[in-house]
Amino acid sequence: MDGLAVQSNPKSQKLSEGHDVGQKIDRISDLPDNILLHILSFTSTKEAIRTSLLSKRWKDLWIFLPDVDLQRSCLELESSFTVLVSKALFHRDTSHLRKFCLELNFDVSLDLFKDWISAAIEHNVQVLDLNLCGGQSFVLPPSFFTSKSLCNLKLSMLHTLEIPSQICFISLKCLTLSRVTFRDDESTQLLFSGFPILEELVLHDCDWQKINCVTISIPTLRKFAFLLETLKHGLLECKIKLYAVNLKSFKYAGFLTVKVLLCNVPLLVNSYVCFYKTVDADYLETIRRAAQLLGRIYRVKFLTITSETLRFLFPKNLAVHLPKFYNLIHLEVGLNHRGVLVSAGRELMCFLNKSPNLQSLDIPVGINTSIFDTLPDCLKSRLKRFSLSKFAAVEYEINFVKFLVTNATALEKVTILAVWADTAFHFGKQEGIEQQLEKLCLSSHVLKLSKTLDLLLHAAQCQLQHCQYQYCDKARGLFQHGRQCKVYSSGGCNLCKKLWYVLQLHARACKESECQLPRCRSLKEYFTKQGGNYNRIPFEMIGVT
Q1: Residue 513: which residues within 8 A CB-CB, separation 6 or more?
Q2: Is the pLDDT of residue 186 over 90?
Q3: Closest to 149 (Cα-Cα) out of 117, 192, 180
Q4: Which of 27, 21, 20, 23 is nearest to 4 (CA)?
Q5: Top-confidence residue, 247 or 488
Q6: Are strands 152-157 and 200-204 parallel, antiparallel or unpaired?
Q7: Other residues' Cβ atoms within 10 Å of the Cβ of residue 521
């Protein structure tokens, strides 16, 4: 029999005394199709395709999988890749296609491409991800624009999106358009009128050069992200007006090439703003656009803004009008789009003066107190939680903490993480810092936590059998315990609880995409899925009543 052969043990064969136990057995291939497909669902599409080589029983079984992800890496030859796509879409039975991903970076017959997409629609595809990065212009079939099954669509293409006269995605809830060129106002307006229940919209690096004014009116929209991270043109007169009465979250990251106008967003509570600066554009006009956009989100409760954006909004010797952010209760200042820290102490003070009811502030580094003319009202009487995520333990930062503790009368909790500090691995200096903070009636436990983070980061990467770093062997033993423990923190293991708490606290502050600390990446992904609440795990450090 073809397939996976399991040869019995010779000793067992001898003991069988005549029973044919030495024959080839392929028990897996005897399983019904639905069981085999369930097994294949745990593999990538590329790995599932390879199972066709096992036996005739497995040949092309993968084409009936509900989720198919075909990327150029599946096969080296373009002709063979085309055959794979055709098999997946033309040879499958009447079963529904839940998810279909296609990456094309070479030219194919336009008619064949249309047939592929039409077949996916006919199989009631729910999640469609098309990455069309080839040189030719792809035209989507009319049936695509009237799909009744599509719930999630990601479309990336390097050319103009041709829009038919009829368009209605009655089930679409999530839409991402990347690098798309819009032809004109009329067709673009028609496109955005075809999403009656859309909840999430992402417009990433699209080309708006041919657009004068487009109105996007989607009452069901809850999340909107506008990303313009590639500078293709100078300042355009293009206006994008958004009417979304149920919008809760807004993100803008990129150059201010176009004008994004949030016209009716009364429920907006969470925003992320990161403006990119360019020396080629009209500087004053760019600042005006930045201030205009900030003026449209003044009702938010939670705001993340980069330090570079703050410097952009409050240039020296230039008055910029911004409204008061009366509803703002949490402010996080992040790094710029390149992950670089830009000093913006003066500009932050200007913004805090616009946020009279702020209760929680998260900034990467301390502020030089010499720039304080007057302390913002929110710091004096409203601020309850404060976090320094990149504490370097330099003198001005220690003075800033002292200043804040002395003057912020409502302060309840402070979090200090020395993850960028030059004090890493220098315990003598850390002890000196600890003594200085203890003079402020701060718990030394927070610096012990910083030491623990440094130790765990070291132990996670250390490969020395006899490491001289203090407690390295114990830290590695703790990781080993976490991998083998059968009780876990949820079951009451105190060691696991302590380790899990420290890992979570680290992950909330960590900005490294390739962090080596165990579980850091998965924890950051989990936090991202929580809907944009950027508050850190509160760590009680002081108690001011």
Answers
A1: none
A2: yes
A3: 117
A4: 27
A5: 247
A6: unpaired
A7: 16
Answer yes or no: are the C-beta atoms of 490 and 484 closer than 8 Å: no
Buried b (16+ CB within 10 A) or exposed e, 313-348: bbeeeeeeebeebeebbbbbbbbbbeeebbebbbbb
Q: Do the strands 302-306 and 330-334 form a parallel or antiparallel pair, or are they unpaired?
A: parallel
Q: Alpha helix locations (H) across 408-470? A: 427-438, 445-461
Rounded Cα–Cα distance for residues 352 and 355 (Å): 5
- 392 neighbors 421 (Cβ within 8 angstroms): yes
CB atoms within 10 A of CB 478: 18
**Tokens at 50, concatenated:** 């390879």
Residue for token pair 């041919």: 210
Summarised one tens digit per residue, pLDDT across range 280-294 is 667 788 888 888 999
What would the two tokens of residue 477 be? 């033993």
* 89-98, 226-235, 249-258, 285-294: range with highest mean pLDDT: 249-258
Q: Over the Cα atoms of the chain, what is R_g?
A: 29
CA distance 527 to 416: 20
On the question of pLDDT at 262 being above 80, the answer is yes
**Nearest alpha carbon to residue 174 among 222, 234, 232:** 222
Q: Is residue 386 within a helix (H) or strand (E), and if so which, with residue range?
A: strand 385-388
Residues 140, 150: Cα–Cα separation, whole Å: 14
The answer to whether 455 touches 475, Cβ cutoff 8 Å, is: yes
Residue 185: left (phi > 0), alpha (psi -120 to 50), or beta? alpha
Task: Concatenate the DSSP letters of all residues of 72-110 into one string.
Answer: GGG-SSHHHHHHHHHHHHHSS-SS---EEEEEE-S---H
Three-class SS of residue 166?
coil
| pLDDT number for residue 403 | 82
| % of the chain surpassing 90 pLDDT | 34
Task: Report the alpha-carbon distance of residue 75 to residue 90 in Å, rounded.
Answer: 19
Residue 145 · residue 163 · CB < 8 Å: yes
Determine the angle formed by the axes of helices 445-461 and 494-509, rounding to 10 degrees: 90
